[in-house]
């Protein structure tokens, strides 16, 4: 059963030369319980597209990582329910002077409407949203 929606900064931790031990342990321990948002798929592919064609070794490593890990994860889409939740939360937050990044709102909406725990490094990016459980695996 899927319980966790991992943010882009969590899944991309696996590409680092020295990844965070807590993240790696949690990804291993909960491997059957994690998914990513369609927004994360975009962010990963956008990051890959920005790597210069001349950086062949880096492109090869990233391409392999995307195919062997990112594309194997379940993906939750930004659907109508998420869009409506996002609109309500965005309006509420803007009325109080908070203007979070749009993509973060989409990810929050996917997690909230799917009853998933959002796992991120950036807790402060998501703590203003109501009805959303956010945790960090970074130690």
Verbal overview:
The relative contact order is 0.20. This protein has a 5-stranded parallel β-sheet. The protein starts with a strand and ends with a strand. It has a single domain, classed as 5'-nuclease (Rossmann fold), CATH 3.40.50.1010. α5 (80-95) crosses α6 (102-113). With 139 residues, the chain is an alpha/beta fold. It contains 6 helices and 5 strands; from the N terminus they run βααβααβααββ. It has helices spanning 8-11, 21-29, 38-49, 56-68, 80-95, 102-113, and strands spanning 4-6, 34-37, 75-76, 117-119, 134-135.
Number of DSSP helical runs: 6
The computed structural class is alpha/beta
Number of strands: 5
Q: Write the element-wise H/E pattern from the N-terminal end onward.
A: EHHEHHEHHEE
The main β sheet shows up as: 5 strands, parallel
Rg over CA atoms, rounded to whole Å, is 15 Å
Percentage beta strand: 5-15%
Helix content: 40-55%
The CATH homologous superfamily name equals 5'-nuclease
Which terms summarize this structure?
five-stranded parallel β-sheet, alpha/beta, 139 residues, globular, Rossmann fold, 6 helices
In a few lines, what is going on in this structure?
The chain has six helices and five strands, in the order E-H-H-E-H-H-E-H-H-E-E. The two termini are 25 Å apart. The mean pLDDT is 97.
Topology (SSEs and partners):
Layout: E1 4-6, H1 8-11, H2 21-29, E2 34-37, H3 38-49, H4 56-68, E3 75-76, H5 80-95, H6 102-113, E4 117-119, E5 134-135
Parallel strand pairs: 1-2, 1-4, 2-3, 4-5
Helix pairs in contact: 5-6
